[in-house]
Amino acid sequence: MFQKKEVIYSETIGVCIVDDIVRLADNKKDTYNYYLLRSVFDKTKKAYIPVENHTVQLRGLITLEEALALRDASDPSERKEQERKEAEKRRQEEVAKKRKEQEEKRKAAMKKSKNKSEEKKEPVAATIETAQADVPEKPMQEQLSLI
User: Fold this and answer.
1) Which 3-state string (H, E, C) describes 82-135?
2) What CA–CA distance (Å, rounded) separates 140 from 142?
3) What digits encode the pLDDT tens for the residues 6-18?
4) Nearest by Cα to 48 from 72, 71, 26, 81
5) Which of 42, 51, 89, 104 is packed most tightly, with the most Cβ within 10 A?
């Protein structure tokens, strides 16, 4: 028997609260106890279910701790499969993380290599004088032949 304010499951209205236990009479003037159930999710829904000999399935709800205990006591092969899937997921995440780190290292090495190659290049002449100083002088005969 359920008590007032207890949260239960009814196959007709789902999760509900035992709002009250009332006495109702039938046509023969016999009185019976009924659960007054109110839906948790739809406040407009209510149902009167006989306390005894009811055809509607009513079940008490379990706590989170009870649900976790049931899960842990479940079939060992299911548990092993779940653990295997979780381990595979962790392994894939680790592989993805290592690949990302390797890609970042490769990019950093390429950038460093590019910077070094740019440092080795000869600087461009800044003025006409320095540019003319870099050009070797032509022998005197060549200069005279151009005249």
Assistant:
1) HHHHHHHHHHHHHHHHHHHHHHHHHHHHHHHHHHHHHHHCCCCCCCHHHHHHHC
2) 5
3) 999 999 899 999 9
4) 26
5) 51
